Amino acid sequence: MNKNKFNFAFWRDVRFLKWAFQLFVLFLVFNSLRGFFSQAVANLAATNLPFSWRFLGTTPGIQVSEGFKTYPESGLEAIQIGIANMLRITVSGIFFATIFGTIMGIARLSKNWIVEKSTTGLVEIVRNIPLLVQIFFWQAVLISFPRLEEADRGQHFIHISAKGIAFPWLDPGESSWLFGFWFILSLYFTRKVFKWRVSVLEKYGREAYPTIYSLIFLIISNILGWAGAYKLVGIFGYAASIVGNLFDVFPRIGIQVLFISVGSFYAVRYISSEVKRTRSAENRGVLTDDDIFKLVITVLLLLTLIVGMFLPLGVAISDFLLGNEAFFKSNWGLPQFFQGIQNKLDWNYSGAPFSVSYPEAIQAGSSTFTNYSQDVGKVMTVGYFATWVGVVLYTSVFISEVVRSGIMAVAKGQSEAGLSLGLKRSTLLRLIVLPQALRIMLPPMGNQYLNLAKNTSLGIAVAFPEIVSVGQTLYNQEGQTIAVFLIWMAFYSFVSLTLSSIVNFYNKKLKIVER
Amino acid sequence: MSIISAKDVKKWYGDFQALKGVTMEVGEGEVLVICGPSGSGKSTFIRCINRLEQHQDGEIIVDGIQLSNDIKNIEAIRSEVGMVFQSFNLFPHLTVMQNITLAPIWVRKKSKSEAEAKAMELLNRVGIPEQADKFPGQLSGGQQQRVAIARALAMEPKIMLFDEPTSALDPEMIKEVLDVMKELAKSGMTMIVVTHEMGFAKEVADRVMLFDDGQLVEENTPDEFFTNPKSDRTKLFLSQIL
Amino acid sequence: MIEANTKVDYGVVKRWLKENLFSSYSSVVLTFASIFALVALFRGIISFIISPERQWTAITYNLQLYMVQAYPESDFIRVWITVGLVIVMFGLTWGYNSKNIRITINNAMDKLIKVFVVLFLLILITPTSVTTDKVQGIQEEVLQFNTRLLFLGYVTILLVTVIFIKFKFSDKTVLRDLLSFAYLGFLIASIWFIKVPTVVFDSTNVRVQDQYLPVASSTTIPWTVLYFVLIGFYYLGKSFNSKQVIALKRAIPAFWFLLPLLVVTWIYRKPDFSLVSIYSIDLPMVAVGLVLGYISLFIFNQEKNKKYQKYFFYLTLALFLVSLFLPILRQLKIIFFLYFILTSLSPYISNTKENSKNLLIVWTLSISIILFLMRGGTSETLIEVPGSSIYGGFALTWIIAYFGVLLSSPLGVLLALGRTSKLPIVRIICTTFIELVRSVPFITWLFFGSVMLSLFLPRGVEFDEVVRAIAVTAIFSSAYLAENVRGGLQSINKGQFEAADAVGLNTIQRISLIVLPQALRAVIPTLVSQVISLFKDTSLVAIVGLFDLLFVGIKVIPAQSQGANFLGTVLENIVFCAILYWVFTYSFSRRSMKIEKRLGLGER
Ligand SMILES: Nc1ncnc2c1ncn2[C@@H]1O[C@H](COP(=O)(O)OP(=O)(O)O)[C@@H](O)[C@H]1O
Ligand SMILES: [Mg+2]
Fold it and tell me: How far is C-alpha B54 from the geometric centre of its chain's CA atoms?
């Protein structure tokens, strides 16, 4: 368009004003950020602790009270322990909070007055007390149990003391990975069986018992698996070894180029189709958060692939940049990945996948104290217990609210419509109420999961070594506060991004089902 | 002298061309009715006149003001041209009185008492003085649309635009809104009305236009338009609508 | 008529039981299981409370510590003044907004009867003995038969009284507020009579057996006085309402807003100000403000001078901008800034002489208040406490919550507007900020505030740890707030924007007059729950070592080995903290639900 057609000063042009304002804001933000950072650089230079990532590679000399290792060999490993602990509590927390929350949500809709009132009372109590207070409470409760004493030494079934809760646990045998993989496969096929029976039901209109069929299938297939059928899964290990061997046979660069070009091809195709879709008439080029997530994930995957292929190169660069050799000590990369699969899924393994072991209280080292044995059973430490119970209870209360309002939103009109169609109550619940309620419940549910993940950081108050707590120990030791903060930020951003992508994915799927 | 003149106005939404070169003139005090099938670009065109949408090619001159990206012009145009929407778009959190006095106070910088006196006069004119302190949600559709007309008139515009003002109304309420509009037309206001109320067009319009597919298909006096249309497209349209 | 009303309709009861408790077999089982579980829970709680292991004196002895931490006892009158002012405002607000709702005595007594019957049953099922030694299973009797009978007797007397009142006055009604006063009065009266477990020292300052003693008069007298103050100001507020003092409708929220500021700058801080500086600096400055305001409101608002208004506006803008770089008093800069805002708004908000006069008064008042608060806040404090801050205990919890909300609200609204804006750069900046802040847990931001913030500031610039905690809280909460407000903004119909444009409002007017009022009203429920969760989140400052309520409860008191020695009394303290938090959050959420309902009705 020709601007000169109109004669007015350029600074009265709305477009100019808009961009001028934006550039002004950008300038302000940029300038203050720059100010802060240069100040930080100057301040750090004045101390004798300039910013560096070096601590990730060196042995920090700290002890982590629980986790897959107690004395981490590097800062990175310490962080990994923290992450593993955090994930441990988050995953099991989400699992149990969902179950309790659903039960409570349904109980709050109960027609039974006393059940409804007492559940509501519980919800009101838990919801209105700060989570931190609750976590301290559960810690204090467990600590008020008797100390673990010499009198308690020996094997137990379940044992509670001020040291924690000890209970029996499954010890993995060498074939545990095989069976685990078998189990996941069986879940997949159980779903298939369920769908098949549903389709039979829909096609012939006679009762086809989808739930019963799929349950029986699940049980039988796992009994067979336990009895030794898991060995069949070894085929995957074998396949992995073949792919792994390709790396030795063909020139490495060829495989790298192949993988990357295939990956890039699909990524670019995907992105361009996305862009085209969002440019269409009804969307008018507006990217929703959803779309941005998808694009970001695609790019991240692509980057992962590229870095994964060229990992040795990446290691060299990072070593050069960070100036340390130990950063990526282990030999990572796709060949190693396939080798790992081959190791875990070897069909020569045999024996029972898991065996039960019972907790045992023993003399701790050379001291006279009593402690639970690390090798048998499982101990829920005080920190874990307090954080876990606190977080699960707190979240399930909020989940109960989600479930309740989700069901209530659907229940009224829809279920009446269903009943007038002559559907059975259970069918009604499964086919009409639940799918719609799930649609409504999913996004707020995802929010609650995210809150749970973030709330596990309160474990620091009861000395549970999750990532924030480990990070704090690290910077107290090494002084690299900013680096640790960046790690926290990256980790939690990653967790929220992942969780919301999962939620978005299912949301999309459910939407399609609805159509 | 024409108060509105549009020359070869074009407008795209993405790849889709909504206006394909519209040229027309409206004289002072004239009442113009625009009709045409849904999606033909009627709304888009009259929204370009008060710059709720920006046209991308051609030129529009309203009361001597060239519509451009000049911020001064945009401000000026908005207070010259009043608009009434299909879905009323009253401000639900303000009373009827506040709805009407808002713009005079904040844009015309009138005093509150002055604005309220004027608003009362307008409410009398549209026939609902007793509803001044109610909220829009408490009024019927016809009453709401009349408040919307009063709100637009409160800015003392030279031109009034109506975008299908009666199509969201129940039949029994259409008349009360049309009566207000007829009265307005007779008072000499320049009006552009997008409507399918052919009775209204016959009675008060000076000219009738037909839009189709982003183009001005026919421009005629009401008599000619209904009895002896020039184009086949108009005949087809009339046969569908009457 | 009366008989029909008071007779118990057994059919109704039966039907209720059948429908709500015994509607089916599974329901019967559930009912009995729940009753069993509830009884067991209740007995467990009671035996926890009355167990001889418990040291509830840890709380009664440390109540001051809980409320205000180390605030010196000699200055306690300041704390009482604070509480008093809150109560004054509370009474005034209550009275002014009182709806004169009347309820029948019959209904009120019915509720009381329910309460007393439940109390009776609970006393009946209270356990008699508690296990004192878990390992050896030794039981100790704590509730004698006679005591139980005594309590049952009390409750029975109350029950009989209530039933008597019910029958005697069943057709009478009473103001609901009066009833509340009666209950409150009962509560206040009871603190004169009840005995609480108290720590006792002998003459050599050695702690001896705890005793049940009456509440100290330093507690009972102020509360009793405050009770009457409450009633007094309730009636004052009521009379203002009946006399149609409209100004109070605006003034009450303003007072609530100012009260905490006044408390933290003057009342609580005990500033060491000199009268000379007030006379020589603050008063002249108010005079300057008065003159400036007169110029703007009376000279340039006149019809004949309107054409110069624009130039005057530019002049004040220039004045403000230049003053930023001049070595003049901070106060003056602030006045210039406010003056700039006044001149830019005055054409819109003052049209008549009358209006201008009112505005001049408001303007002068606000400058005086601002200068007054600044004088208090910037003077040295005369309060001496160990540690860096005079704010501690529950008071600190409130201060962080109040300032957190105060600061995060405008920031959150701005961020939400930015995130929904059509300007891409602004949108990206706001989105990034919001998502980054929200992605990490609050505790990491608190660590950021306590250990990292000083790294980003020029050397020598040190903020008090409380200030840092407030800043971090405000920033964190603003991001969440922004998301809530965004929900409201997105719920607004596109037609509203178009209508605002069509009547000629500019962007700022459109946002402030049309968009925000609707958006905020739409999200009031989520905003309230956001505020509640901010209040709960303040407890996290205990982790970074601020002396808030929770920190006193879990770290300070269980570590007291001197004097009364409450080493290791953790559970009691946590339970107390939990109850305190609960009472406030619960009543707040109940209250907000009622307001929501009212707003929802008002809109239709
Ligand atoms: N904001 C918009 N974005 C994309 N397309 C639009 C937009 N507004 C209108 N259109 C398209 O422009 C065409 C003309 O619309 P409109 O002027 O509203 O028609 P009418 O008012 O005559 O029914 C329609 O096909 C419509 O789909
Ligand atoms: Mg239209």
Answer: 17
Dump pLDDT digits (tens) for B42-68.
Answer: 999 999 998 899 888 899 999 888 888
Contact between residue C185 and residue C192 where contact means Cβ atoms under 8 Å apart: no
Gap from A13 CA to chain B (nearest CA, Å) = 5
Sequence ranges of the domains in chain C: 10-50+72-244, 271-381, 390-604
pTM of the model: 0.87
Q: What's the rounded Cα separation, in Å, for the pair A69 and A81?
A: 7
State the helix-helix crossing angle for C570-603 and A131-143, rounded to 10 degrees.
150
- What is the reported pLDDT for C467? 92
Closest CA to C398 of C594, C581, C214: C581
Choose from A49, A109, A124, A132 for mutation: most chain C CBs within 10 A.
A132
Contact C439 A146 (CB under 8 A): no
Give the DSSP per-residue string, C247-304: HHHHHHHHHHHHHHHHIIIIITT-B---HHHIIIIIHHHHHHHHHHHHIIIIITTSGG
Pairwise CA distance, residues C561 & C574, whole Å: 18
Partner-chain residue, chosen from B85, B138, B152, that has the shortest CB–CB distance to C498: B85
Percentage of residues in chain A having pLDDT higher than 70: 82
Per the DSSP assignment, residues forming a β-bridge with A381 are: A164
Could you tell me if A152 and C135 are in contact, meaning their C-beta atoms sit under 8 angstroms apart? no
Q: Does B54 touch chain A (CB under 8 A)?
A: no
Dist. CA C58 → ligand 1 center (Å): 73
Residues 349-368 in C contacting B (C-alpha not used; CB under 8 Å): 351-352
Q: Would you say residue C414 has pLDDT above 90? A: yes
Helices B96-106/B141-153 angle, 10° precision: 20
Q: Are C525 and C599 in contact (CB under 8 A)?
A: no
* B19: CB partners within 8 A, 6+ apart: B9, B10, B11, B41, B44, B45, B48, B55, B214
> Per residue in C359-410, pLDDT tens?
888 899 999 999 999 888 888 888 888 776 888 899 999 999 999 999 999 9
Kindly state if the Cβ of B44 falls inside 6 Å of ligand 1: yes
Residue A349 has pLDDT above 90, yes or no: no
Is A413's pLDDT higher than 70? no
Which residues are within 8 A (CB) of A500 and not within 5 positions of it... i.e. 6 or more apart?
A293, A446, A450
**Å from CA of B43 to ligand 2 middle:** 4
Give the integer Cα–Cα distance in Å for A170 and A1. Answer: 73
User: Does residue C90 carry a pLDDT above 80?
Assistant: yes
The pLDDT tens digits for C565-583 are 888 889 999 999 999 999 9
Q: Is the CB of A284 under 6 A from ligand 1?
A: yes
Token pair of B187 as six digits = 């008072």
Identify the CATH number of the domain defined by range C390-604: 1.10.3720.10
User: What's the rounded Cα separation, in Å, for the pair C564 and C561?
Assistant: 7
Q: Write out the two tokens for A216.
A: 């029986």
